[in-house]
Amino acid sequence: xxxxxxxxGVCANKIDIELDGDVIVDVLFHGGCNGNLKAISALIKGxxxxxxxxxxxxxxxxxxxxxxxxxxxxxxxxxxxxx
Length: 83
Fold this sequence. Notes:
This protein is α+β, with helices and mostly antiparallel strands and 83 residues long. The protein has a single domain (2-82), classed as Enolase-like, domain 1. The chain is 41% helix and 23% strand. It is built from 3 helices and 3 strands; from the N terminus they run βββααα. β2 and β3 form a beta hairpin. It is globular and about 35 Å long.
């Protein structure tokens, strides 16, 4: 299943998510810190949402109350609920 998520409060303006059930197949960030976000995408492929959520959820970026990683978890959960 493919899903588009529009994060709030971060530099990335869209996250393309592909899931196979609860398993992350692919994630592509648009905008944001390109190298870091490519690394996050590579590290989470093949893992479940429940495996990566405790690691990424709640991370902040500078003075912001959220981060691209935190928003990704929100997007993954939203995508799962739509599937």
